[in-house]
Fold this protein.
Amino acid sequence: MNENTLTSEEGYNFAYLDEQTKRMIRRSLLKAVAIPGYQVPFSSREMPLPYGWGTGGIQVTASIIGRDDLLKVIDQGADDTTNAVSIRKFFARTAGVETTEETTSATLIQTRHRIPEKPLNENQILVYQVPIPEPLRWIEPRETESRKMHALREYGVMHVKLYEDITHYGEIATSYDYPVQVNGHYIMAPSPIPKFDNPKMHMNPALQLFGAGREQRIYAIPPFTEVISLDFEDYPFRIQQWKDSCALCGSKDSFLDEVVINDKGERLFICSDTHFCQERQKQGYRGDVPIPEGFGIKPGEKQ
Amino acid sequence: MSLSAIQPLMQVEALEKWYGQQLGCRNVNFELYPGEVLGIVGESGSGKSTLLNCLSAQMEPSAGSIRFDVREQGLRDLFSLSEAQRRVLMRSEWGFVHQNPRNGLRMRVSAGANVGERLMGLGARNYADIRQQSLTWLEKVEIDAARVDDLPIHFSGGMQQRVQIARNLVSQPRLVFMDEPTGGLDVSVQARLLDLLRSLVTDLGLSVIIVTHDLAVTRLLAHRLMVMRGGEVIEQGLTDQVLDDPQHPYTQLLVSSVLQP
Amino acid sequence: MISQPEASNCMIHVEHLHKHFKLHNQGGTRLQVLEDISLQVNKGNCLVLDGPSGKGKSTLLRCLYGNYLAQGGQVKVNLSRQDGITEWLDLAKASPREILYARRHHIGYVSQFLRVIPRVPVIDIVSEPLRSLGVEREEARQRAATLLERLNLPERLWQLSPSTFSGGEQQRINIAHCFIVGYPILLLDEPTASLDTKNRAVVMELIEEAMEQGTAIVGIFHDSEVRNQVATDYFRFGNNTHDRT
């Protein structure tokens, strides 16, 4: 059986994109990996979903996915949101690959706005969906100028942003898409992951790839690369912390979502990474907060 | 003469700039020493802005050379440096005060951040230090410390200009280019700004190349004067000599045309 | 006619100075103001320029300051260094930088007019020549204050800008500005014109003290009393002769 006959849909190439397009994207990916954090332009294709829905991430995944890959797709940490489900089904249809919700066994993970809680290993690839790849865009609208600034490391402005935060809020207020410096040179927008996840990018054994479809840029963090979040000496980088723990599994060190659970406005804090939470519950961990009536899911149930 | 021991800061020889067949400027020759203010004066179309753009490396000349005494390197031809090196020069050893402060400031970022940006660009990483230096410089340009966190869009033109000056001086440049820095300001505001520039030049030992159409500004600020017309340098010398004893017909015309209130 | 400057003692040496004005915008009229002027001034001497008005006295002074351009001849000033070695600078051929240097260190000039810089107070105008020699602000202001007191300029005026002052007050500021450094060469253009008897006397004292210090002075004095008091030589315009008193 060759790849072409493995697809479920007739008339579509394996993983939707034609082979020449995949080659083009792979060339960009190679360049990106060779220059950590540098935004490589690529020729973004028309995908069967609009811009802003992950076309960049999908194109990257489509270019590197193989028959034997095990694909996981998450959206804000959850495997079961509409987007995650749609994208997973898309690849199941066009590539016939097997999919999973398990972080550890997946070989390829496409994500929107979160990094899984479970540490990744060197056999895995993490593909991020990126809306705005250019960290300087807020201050410098001209592409010609921002490219020069990157090349010459003229990054004074990035600290200006942090300075302004401290001036107006008393602390660095940026809480997601927090700028980082990769491999001691390029400053990169890590996509709107919470700053909580920034430390996970540093020296990660997995390969991290970033795709922005509308902006037509690809960038990468090779395994075991230095990724430092920007800060000031006297206002060092700090991740979010919660007083609460997960109501379902009791975790104190995962990223928690605040969920409004009924019309009375009662709320619970629950792990954003659904699979992580379920694994803990399977192992018997529970939260120490009473779950009010009307909340659809009981501990132990699939979320 | 004990003078000859000092190296010129900038050396310009046979500088020429053409826009296709159209002359920008030519036959420009001068040396600028530390602590000197050179005024370039002329009416519209005289070539003074073209000259300033060439001198500040924003435009490459068609012929001739501009040499600058780069820290720890000596006199270097500006256009033999890489663009990267020129840009570093522009952020550390040079300043540029634009006629319109909007071109020289980030309007939507606080005054303190505007002043501190160059420091952050040069690697400063302590918030308290940066803020303190911003406050110090804002004080030097006579802006109330209480306004350090305000945005320049809320400032008057004169204040915006002063923030621009502070922003340039914070990196302690040796040479500052100024393009009609008092243009468009009320007369009383101009007077205050000129006075400030004068004292900064004396206190900091700055060299300045200032382009203006206003002779009164040159009388006040410039040690030396270069008069331009139609792209040519008509006359140059000591400011008071050129203004009090002009030799060239055009210079005489210019001087006699100035209204004395 | 002296053709070789005497070593060290001679501070100003002018040879065959020619100066004209060409008024291009007034039909190209040419005014020959100075013709073949030669003179010398030694240390401690005061050369008074004498002659009817309009003959070029002020013009000559301005040539000695580099403010007017000479068309011919030499205008040499002695910039003696600390070690006493004579160095001559020909102002007619000097670069702007050299003239600025000479003015900052060696030559003071009192003109008839005070060009007022907006907003700068008297105390700073007078201390500025010291500041440009590197003297600290406080010390410079102290010395300015002493001199202003001597010239009877009341302290309440020191923090004001002189733009609204009387002619006599402005002139005293001019004089203070010129005498504060102790330049070895002074050029004085009618320094006592608007002054009353008391202040005229102060200025005469200042001039005499300077001469005792070895300062070479070239001056234009309308007032015969002052002239007789301070002059050691005369240069008479009209026949361009240089007499000793």
In short: Chain A has a mean pLDDT of 91.
